[in-house]
Each structure stands twice: as structure tokens, then as C-alpha cells.
Design goal:
Layout lengths: L1 E5 L2 H11 L9 E9 L2 E9 L17 E9 L6 H15 L5 E6 L8 H5 L3 E5 L3 E6 L5 E2 L9 E4 L2 E4 L6 E6 L3 E6 L2 H8 L35
Parallel strand pairs: 4-5
Antiparallel strand pairs: 1-2, 2-3, 3-4, 5-12, 6-12, 7-8, 7-11, 9-10
């Protein structure tokens, strides 16, 4: 049995830093929802403003009428991800009636093609422009630009955490990301449907082609209190 409820930034950060492949909490989450399976805390689904301030402009959506699904940070679970996200979207829409759309991006550089969004019948809107990123030499991992700084530290909320310096990395060309959207009202759904593209094929492995191997960390590792 799956239950979802709003959680604090502390609880959301725990899920991201323990179970998400990026290990990086978004700087300004709009809303975070905890997920419990049979009373065990299994992670968080987090929505935010994303990196692009004009995320929905091309689709006729204002800055405060859309959000980005920025993290799905889950440990081992039985329920499909495509059954975990919808109830969090329902809670989000109920708490923010002005929202009209949710966007999300699947990154082929991490073996993602958007399988969970396809399973949830989200609209595929094509790809973003190609970009450049950092690959850490010692691990071979692609790193988010926010964790690569010349100072070697980065501020996350109210604390400073260790970062990686550019000298430890190589600049690499990154493939375009896949863009998906979910309309939250009839007019928005119709507008997005007119722009829909055929779904891309799978490009990697993982749960529904989207969630990579889960990092270590047991379920229920933090209290199930929804306020924590």
C-alpha cells in the first residue's frame, strides 16, 4: 500500500542524498512529498521551479502556473514508479489551484528516455538543445553543474557542502534531454496534445527505463512522521 504526504526539506534532502543518483537536492523546491509503502518511508517526489525561469513560456504557461518534477528519489520498492507519482501530483494540484502544467526531463546521458512518463501518459514535447557538462575523472560520473565550483564548496540551503573543482573534471558534450509535460486542466491538456511528438524508444536500463540502480540505504531509515 502506497501513501504520500507533504514532508519537510530535511526529510526530502535525506531521500535525495541517500537514494537519488545525483545526490544533490534542488536549491528551491516548491513542494516535496514523502512516499510510504506499508508504513516504511521509501523516498520522496519533489517539485520545483527548475533551472529554467521561463519553463512554460513556449507553451503559454506563466512562471507561477507550472512546476518541474525535479527529483524522484526512492529506495527499493514494489509499486511501479508510475503509480507513485500520480497521487503526489494530485496533492500538488489541490494545494496550488493556479498550476496548469507539470514538466519533467529525462536525461539520455544517464540512460533515461522517460519510461515512467510514457507509462503515465504524459505528453512528449521533443528534446532540449544539446549542452556541455562535467565528467569527474576519478569516478567517470557526470556531475550537475551546481556541484562543480572553483572554490570546492557549494551552499545548499543553510549549510556549505563539499563540491568538485573544474580541475578534477573534463568538459563533455551532453545529448539533448527529453521533455515531457502533464496538463492539469482540460485547456492545457488540449494545448499540449497539439504539440505532442511520438515517444522516444528506450535507451538504457532501469525500472521502467527511468530509475537507475538504487544506492544503498534501507527503507524506513528516518521517522515515518510526515512532519519530519
Amino acid at each position: 500500500m502506497i501513501r504520500v504526504a507533504p514532508i519537510s526539506t530535511t526529510a526530502a534532502s535525506y531521500a535525495v542524498e541517500t537514494w537519488h543518483y545525483s545526490r544533490v537536492m534542488p536549491r528551491s523546491p516548491a513542494q516535496a512529498f514523502g512516499v510510504w509503502e506499508d508504513d516504511d518511508y521509501i523516498g520522496a517526489v519533489i517539485f520545483g521551479r527548475g533551472a529554467a525561469p521561463n519553463l512554460g513560456r513556449a507553451y503559454g504557461v506563466g512562471r507561477f502556473e507550472c512546476v518541474e518534477l525535479v527529483r524522484v528519489a526512492l529506495t527499493a520498492h514494489r509499486a511501479p514508479v508510475s503509480q507513485i507519482i500520480p497521487p503526489t501530483v494530485k496533492l500538488l494540484a489541490a494545494s496550488s489551484p493556479s498550476l496548469r502544467a507539470v514538466f519533467s526531463f529525462a536525461d539520455p546521458a544517464h540512460g533515461h528516455h522517460g519510461g515512467i512518463y510514457q507509462a503515465m501518459n504524459w505528453t512528449y514535447l521533443g528534446t532540449t538543445a544539446a549542452a556541455r557538462g562535467w565528467r569527474q575523472r576519478s569516478t567517470g560520473k557526470l556531475l550537475h553543474q551546481r556541484v562543480v565550483t572553483t572554490s570546492g564548496v557549494v551552499r545548499q540551503f543553510d549549510r556549505w557542502v563539499k563540491a568538485v573543482t573544474p580541475a578534477e573534471c573534463d568538459l563533455v558534450e551532453l545529448p539533448p534531454k527529453h521533455r515531457y509535460a502533464l496538463g492539469l486542466d482540460r485547456g492545457m491538456r488540449r494545448a499540449l496534445d497539439r504539440l505532442a511528438c511520438p515517444y522516444p524508444p528506450a535507451c538504457g536500463r532501469g525500472l521502467e527505463g527511468e530509475t537507475p540502480d538504487v544506492p544503498s540505504g534501507g527503507v524506513g531509515s528516518i521517522p515515518a512522521d510526515r512532519s519530519q
